[in-house]
Amino acid sequence: MGIRERLSGNEAAATAMRQINPDVVAAFPITPSTEIPQYFSTFVSNGTVDTEFVAVESEHSAMSACIGAQAAGGRAMTATSANGLSLMWEMLYIASSLRLPIVMSLVNRAVSRSTKYT
To answer: DSSP 3-state assignment of 75?
Structure first.
C-alpha cells in the first residue's frame, strides 16, 4: 500500500483517536462529524484498538455514556457537530461540574434555526 498524500479532517480525527486508544467511545451519527465514528469503528472491528464502542440513540446519550465511563475511571471520547452539541448541552454542565476530562471532537457547522416571516 502506498503512502497517502492527505487525510480528510474527519479521518485525521479518527486516526488521532486510534493513537489515543480510549477505553470508551460513545457516538451518534450527526453530519458533518458522522465519518469520525465510522472510521474509528473500523479500528475497533479490526482489533487495532482495544476500545468499547457504544452506538447510542442520541447526542444526549453519547455524553451520558462518556460521563459514566469517565466517572468509572476510563478514558472516554465522542464526536459531534454544532447541532449535536446543542442537543447534549444539558449533560455538558454535569461533565464539567464533575471535572471529567472527556475528549470531544467538534466538527462545526452553522446551528440551524427557524426564521418566522410575517
So the answer is: coil
47 SS3 class = coil
Stated as kind and residue range, the H or E segment containing 87 is: helix 82-87
| Residue 79 cell numbers, joined | 464526536
- The burial of 74, by beta-carbon neighbours within 10 Å (0-12 exposed, 13-18 middle, 19 or more buried), is given as middle
Whose grid coordinates read 482489533? 47
| Tens-place pLDDT, residues 40-68 | 999 999 999 999 999 999 999 999 999 99
pTM of the entire structure?
A: 0.86
Indicate the CATH number for domain 9-107: 3.40.50.970
Of 24, 50, 31, 83, nearest to 10 by C-alpha is: 31
Set of cell numbers at residue 37: 465514528
User: Radius of gyration over alpha carbons of the chain, in Å?
Assistant: 15
